[in-house]
Specification:
The complex is a heterodimer of chains A (146) and B (80). In chain A, 25% of the residues lie in helices and 27% in strands. By secondary structure, chain A is α+β, with helices and mostly antiparallel strands. Chain A has two domains: 57 residues; 56 residues, no CATH class. Chain B has a domain of 51 residues. Classes of the chains: A alpha+beta (146), B mainly alpha (80).
Chain lengths: 146, 80
């Protein structure tokens, strides 16, 4: 199921519903839901939308839109989970130029990064930096996207 | 975990955490941090079972190479 979710995100820009996954895997809908919960438990860096069984985040991509818009081949239909995960999206599109575009949270002006097979290309402005606002680990106590 | 136009822009962000001054990472370092071997296998059929479990050790090795060895980056509890 993990790969079906990841590949659906790559192909369509959105995560599938568990009922769609269940049908594709010849499971009952409830078996599909339970398997989704198991997958999310095994991949805790992603999450379901609170109080639902909808996949919100499945890093490096996000089904719920974020400010990190991702374009491939000039088509924008993906979103990265966060600015850090955005630099990993390149590995989902081998051989392609992946463009990450986001508004700076300070001024709203664009931050643009292009990557191809892990290598940085266009970086505009050249001084772009990553910032982790709360330390990693269980003590973060803050939303992962900050 | 955000990208900013520069460190100055990040510090001007109203939600900037003053305790996160060490939270900056240069873009090439970030690309290395999120471009480790396991990341290259996210589309493999056995990613979740064979590659994802290796991620933590891999991330730690990169962070140590980058000199980011504080609890803030390594996720370990701060000394009392």
């Amino acid at each position: 199921m993990f790969q079906r979710i990841m590949r659906a995100l790559v192909e369509t820009g959105r995560a599938p519903h568990y009922a769609e996954l269940a049908r594709a895997m010849r499971l009952t809908v409830e078996q599909g839901r339970q398997l989704l919960l198991d997958v999310m438990q095994a991949y805790p860096i992603g999450w379901l939308h609170p109080e639902t069984d909808y996949i919100a985040s499945f890093p490096p991509l996000n089904s719920l839109p974020t400010q990190y818009r991702v374009s491939v081949g000039g088509e924008q239909k993906w979103f990265a989970q966060c600015g850090f995960e955005a630099t990993s999206v390149t590995w989902l599109f081998p051989g392609a130029t992946v463009r990450i575009e986001a508004p700076c949270l300070d001024c709203g002006d664009p931050v643009v990064v292009e990557m191809r097979d892990g290598r940085l290309g266009t970086v505009d402005p050249p001084g772009i930096v990553g910032h982790l606002n709360y330390g990693f680990g269980a003590s973060r106590g803050r939303p992962a996207f900050l | 975990m955000n990208l900013f136009r520069s460190e100055e822009h990040a510090r001007r962000w109203p939600q900037f955490n003053p305790a996160a001054e060490e939270g900056f990472i240069a873009l090439p370092d970030l690309a290395a941090f999120f471009g480790t071997e396991t990341r290259r296998h996210m589309l493999d059929a056995d990613y979740l079972s064979a590659w994802y479990p290796k991620r933590a050790a891999e991330r730690r090795a990169v962070l140590e190479r980058l000199g980011k060895t504080s609890p803030f980056w390594l996720g370990t509890p701060a000394p009392a």
